[in-house]
Specification:
Distance between the termini of chain B: 17 Å
Largest interface: A-B, 54 and 66 residues
Number of strands of chain B: 3
Oligomer: heterodimer
Shape of chain A: elongated
Structural class of chain B: mainly alpha
Number of helices of chain B: 15
Order of helices and strands of chain B: HHHHHEEEHHHHHHHHHH
Radius of gyration of chain B: 21 Å
Helix content of chain A: 25-40%
Strand order of the largest sheet of chain B: 1-2-3
Structural class of chain A: alpha+beta
CATH superfamily of the largest domain in chain A: DD-peptidase/beta-lactamase superfamily
CATH topology of the largest domain in chain A: Beta-lactamase
Number of strands of chain A: 22
Helix content of chain B: 55-70%
Strand content of chain B: under 5%
Number of helices of chain A: 25
Number of domains of chain A: 3
């Protein structure tokens, strides 16, 4: 009998009903077991990985970018340590409230913070950290640290800031850096094969920063830290599982770049060119092609980009009619104007159209076809040789050369001198300019070459177009009696220990005294004659650029004016200065010194300055002055002593079309 | 049979207590406390640390209740069942309209020392009153018809309606599940069962349209596709599954569960306490705990099946259903086979109402066990 007191009638009938519960219990245990087996055994490894990813945060330690130094090792572009404020959107619970606390500290509007985070979320996804502000002040760091614990997602990171001590000076040359966007990552990975770009990377977007990205960027380091669900770094008793496998990796600084630039010359050039509000491009080169100075104005401050450029600054830059983001030394091409006459003289002499002693009658105008071709001097220059023609910049002389030579012969000589093809300097997006011939015209315009066009092109006003750097190269070829060099900016790339990784050797692309692909060559005697003509432009008593002389050194060069638009015959003599600025002519000056055996060549394009002599000439003067003062101080001092008392050369009155 | 009495000894009080029941509860207490300690002592857990000591106090109170009730003649329960039921209903009514709002629902009465949640004790009152109502029914024959079901159904639907109104759908469903299980245990006519099931199926879309709040709908949607919004409302479900799975076979070790210690798990000391256990103690700990619950149920069912009377059996069955459904829904939610429902895991989750209700219920089971013996 049972040991229990049970009322059989009452409870016995219940016994079979208990089966339901045993079945339910068994089912529950089976379901749980299967599910737990599935999660913990079958998916266990994968889910363990997920939990590791949850708590291990990889922190990128950006490598300091390589420095840019000038030819004497002086800083052109450097890095500064700083703090930056970062927001990790995935940890933010309420963006508006975070923005409301953070914005006043950073001195901005909460709406701007919200906008910035939302834009980053759209562009870069929810997991990309958003830089709120770089280069935080001590006070900002202190105040941010106080709200840090109550503001999940907010971080203060040490950062390396790119710094451009020359600011606007040379901005188009050095370029700028900014944060890579999500869209750019695949493009950059494709462009710089072998480098893995990541979100948040600071990359070069312009100038040397861009072209040497691979060398300058270095290698990012990584730190692995444990974080909690709110992104806060946390120490627990658990060993860092990843830490045993993946060690923190130090960043490797990028290679330094030694440029051919001379900071002294660069600053002297900037001072005269930009200081006097000029617009345009200037390039100064040594005879072997090493660029000493490179100016393009108006300019911009690349430091603005490093800190994340603001919308108003950016829109001001891209809407500026004078295009601060254009690298005018290689991208602006205009009619070379009278600077082209030196190249014409080379062709005419070598083609024996004239000899150095040939006298040509140059009246105030020349009738050709049914049109009058004017000189800028109403009364003409009389009967002159090629020397006077260059010195006084006679138009009629070179109209006659154009008629005699024809465009094909002009092309055969002048194209090899560097007009109409890229010089090959390292910077990207260089314009080729244009040296026309009849084949070009047929192809480009579907028309035959007109004989009258020989005249306009002969004085550099037709189709022909050149960049400042092309004119520097071609004038240097005259000065060196035939050497066409490749201009270059990057002297060396060296690692931190100073080991040279790459070095650029000066390169002579062509020697014009040898046979060229266009079937011509140019004798040294020809060059000597033209050099003498160019010397007289500055040193001669009636030269158009007498005011740029430097005591003790002889400069050879040529002024030029690029007409912004054609003018009616009766308008030619109207004053350029009376026109609106965007209709004024561009002034050129290209020169080298010393005249007989040049060390330096300078080409300056002063846009809308009306005259080459007054617009561009003083810049060339300042650069050469800086160069010779630096390298020949005794000679300069001595010459200055002798000059004392002697009257300075009177400045010639600027004339149209000189 | 005449000499049988010679062999029967008078059982001592000590021997009448079902010690198996006591030990299995103690075993679950040990696991529960250890696990709660881990869950409340993470690197950033200063705010929840005092809860461990509070839980110890609840537990001590719970055991006191357990033993007091063990020695109480449970027929008294039968006599006071309706009183308890209506008193509790009053409290539920009160919180439904005046209670403290937390997590978007009105559930608590603030008592200073702890917040009393009447809907939790309502479950127990429900069990008592249903045990009384159903004990007069017979399971012989085809089962209960409409007339016999009317009273139990009304007793169930009043608190159910109030709790859903709070809104606390989880507790409402618990009340329905426990009551339903007890009624099915007492056998319901097949035709009626079929009608009820079809009505339930029809009720789902109706409830979706008119009863469920947006957050409740979201929970169901997220259960069906949790990756929809991994950082939003699907977050809990995903993080819980990661915690459980990452425990693998033996777990990450005591206090070494990164998901719980680093607060990736929400509500880790209450509703998601089982993920902490699974993460730190792996398949062995998870299944071991389920196994202990199974042992508790088997012991409880044996007590119920040997109860002195129908009321005792129904009372024990009701308490077991209470623990079973809470366990099933809570663990089911944690391991991702059920939607997120705010239901505590008996004996493991932090919470005074749950702990005291569970221990009182188990005290009743113990009392039923105690009263089985003739001598």
């Amino acid at each position: 009998m049972s040991e229990f007191i049970q009322n059989p009638d009452e409870t016995k009938e219940l016994l079979p009903r208990f089966r339901i519960f045993y079945v339910a219990l068994t089912l529950a245990v089976i379901i749980f077991s299967i599910r737990l087996w599935y999660l913990q055994v079958l998916q266990g490894a994968e889910l363990r990985e997920f939990s590791e990813k949850n708590r291990i945060k990889q922190i990128k330690v950006a490598a300091p970018r390589g420095l840019m130094l000038d030819r004497e090792g002086r800083i052109l572009v450097e890095n500064r340590p700083g703090f930056e404020a970062i927001l990790s959107p995935q940890y933010i619970e309420n963006l508006e409230s975070v923005a409301a606390v953070v914005a006043p500290i950073l001195g901005t509007e909460p709406e701007k913070v919200v906008q910035r985070v939302q834009r980053s979320r759209r562009q870069n996804g929810p997991y990309a950290a958003v830089r709120l502000k770089e280069n935080l002040s001590r006070d900002e760091v202190f105040r941010l640290k106080r709200i840090r614990l109550d503001t999940p997602g907010l971080e203060i990171r040490e950062a390396v800031m790119r710094s451009y001590p020359l600011r606007d000076n040379g901005a188009q040359l050095f370029g700028y850096v900014s944060e890579i966007s999500k869209k750019q990552i695949p493009l950059y990975n494709e462009l710089y094969k072998g480098v893995q770009f990541e979100q948040g990377d600071i990359v070069g977007k312009f100038g040397i920063e861009e072209i040497l990205e691979r060398d300058i960027r270095g290698e990012n380091g990584y730190q692995y830290v444990q974080v909690d669900a709110f992104g806060r770094e946390t120490v627990t008793q658990t060993p860092n599982v990843y830490g045993e496998q993946i060690k923190d990796r130090e960043s490797i600084a990028g290679a330094n770049v030694i440029l051919t630039i001379d900071r002294d010359i660069q600053e002297a050039a900037w001072k005269t060119f930009s200081g006097e509000g000029r617009i345009g491009g200037v390039v100064a080169m040594k005879a072997n092609g090493e660029v000493l100075a490179w100016i393009s104005t108006p300019s911009f401050d690349p430091n603005d980009f490093a800190a994340g450029i603001s919308a108003p600054v950016w829109s001001k830059l891209i809407n500026d009619p004078f295009k601060p983001l254009r690298n005018k030394v290689i991208q602006d091409y205009f009619a070379p104007g009278s600077t082209f006459k030196a190249l014409m003289a080379v062709a005419a002499l070598q083609e024996k159209v004239i000899t150095p002693t040939t006298l040509i009658n140059c009246p105030g105008s020349l009738r050709f076809g049914n049109r009058d071709y004017h000189d800028h001097l109403r009364g003409g220059h009389g009967t002159i040789t090629v020397f006077e023609a260059l010195e006084r910049s006679s138009n009629v002389f070179f109209y006659k050369m154009g008629i005699s030579l024809g465009i094909e012969k002009m092309y055969n000589y002048i194209f090899p001198m560097g007009i109409g093809s890229k010089t090959g300097v390292e910077l990207p997006r260089e314009a080729a300019g244009l040296m026309p011939n009849s084949a070009w015209k047929r192809q480009a315009m579907g028309e035959e070459w007109q004989p009258g066009e020989n005249l306009s092109n002969a004085i550099g006003q037709g189709f022909v177009q050149a960049t400042p750097i092309q004119l520097a190269v071609s004038y240097l070829a005259i000065g060196t009696e035939g050497k066409v060099v490749r201009p270059f900016l990057i002297k060396k790339v060296a690692d931190l220990e100073g080991k040279v990784l790459r070095e650029t050797q000066p390169q002579v692309l062509r020697d014009l005294q040898e046979h060229q692909s266009t079937g011509v060559h140019i004798d040294a005697a020809t060059f000597k004659t033209v050099k003498e003509g160019l010397r007289r432009v500055v040193q001669g008593s009636r030269g158009t650029a007498r005011q740029i002389r430097i005591p003790g050194f002889e400069i050879a060069g040529k002024t030029g004016t690029a007409q912004v638009r054609g003018f009616a015959a009766n308008d030619i003599y109207s004053k350029c200065e009376n026109r609106p600025i965007n209709q004024r002519h561009h002034g050129w000056f290209v020169g080298f010194a010393p005249a007989d055996n040049p060390e330096i060549v300078v080409a300056a394009l002063a846009e809308h300055s009306c005259h080459g002599s007054s617009g561009a000439g003083p810049v060339v003067h300042a650069i050469m002055n800086a160069y010779f003062s630096k390298h020949y101080p005794e000679k300069m001092a001595e010459a200055a002593k002798q000059q004392k008392g002697a009257p300075a050369a009177p400045a010639p009155a600027p004339v149209e079309g000189e | 049979m005449a000499d049988v009495g010679l062999h029967v000894e008078q059982r001592t009080i000590f021997k009448k207590i079902d010690w198996n029941l006591v030990f299995v509860i103690l075993a679950l207490n040990v696991i529960g406390l250890m696990n709660l300690f881990s869950a409340t002592h993470g690197p950033h857990s200063l705010d929840v640390q005092p809860l461990f000591v509070k839980q110890l106090i609840f537990l001590a109170t719970g055991w006191t209740l357990f033993f007091v009730i063990t020695f109480v003649e449970y027929t008294i329960v039968s006599r006071i069942a309706y009183f308890v039921y209506f008193a509790n209903l009053g409290a539920v009514l009160y919180v439904t309209f005046f209670g403290r709002v937390a997590l978007g629902a009105q559930r608590w009465i603030d008592l200073g020392f702890f917040s009393y949640q009447p809907s939790e004790t309502m479950k127990l009152a429900m069990i008592m009153v249903l045990a009384k109502a159903l004990s007069s029914r017979s399971v012989s024959g085809a089962g209960m018809g409409i007339r016999q079901l009317a009273l139990p159904l009304v007793l169930m639907l009043i608190p159910f309606g109030l709790v859903v109104e709070q809104p606390d759908l989880g507790t409402g469903l618990m009340i329905a599940a426990i009551s339903g299980s007890m009624m099915i245990f007492m056998k319901i006519r097949k035709a009626i069962l079929a009608v009820v099931i079809s009505l339930g199926l029809i009720a789902i879309p109706v409830a979706w349209e008119f009863v469920l709040r947006d957050y409740q709908k979201n929970r169901v949607i997220n259960f069906l596709s949790p990756t929809n919004d991994p950082k939003g409302s699907g977050y809990n479900s995903i993080q819980s599954k990661i915690a459980v799975g990452s425990g693998r076979l033996v777990g990450k070790g005591f206090q070494k569960g990164t998901q719980s210690q680093l607060e990736f798990l929400p509500e880790r000391h209450t509703d998601f306490i089982y993920s902490v256990l699974s993460e730190e103690h792996g398949l062995i700990g998870s299944l071991g705990t389920v196994g202990l619950f199974a042992v508790l149920f088997v012991i409880g069912l044996r007590i119920a099946s040997t109860a002195r009377d129908k009321f005792g059996a129904l009372l024990a069955v009701g308490v077991l259903c209470y623990i079973f459904w809470h366990m099933f829904v809570n663990i089911g939610m944690v391991i991702g086979i059920l939607p997120i429902v705010g239901v505590p895991l008996p004996l493991l989750s932090y919470g005074g109402s749950s702990m005291l209700t569970t221990m009182t219920g188990l005290g009743l089971v113990s009392s039923v066990a105690y009263r089985r013996y003739l001598f």
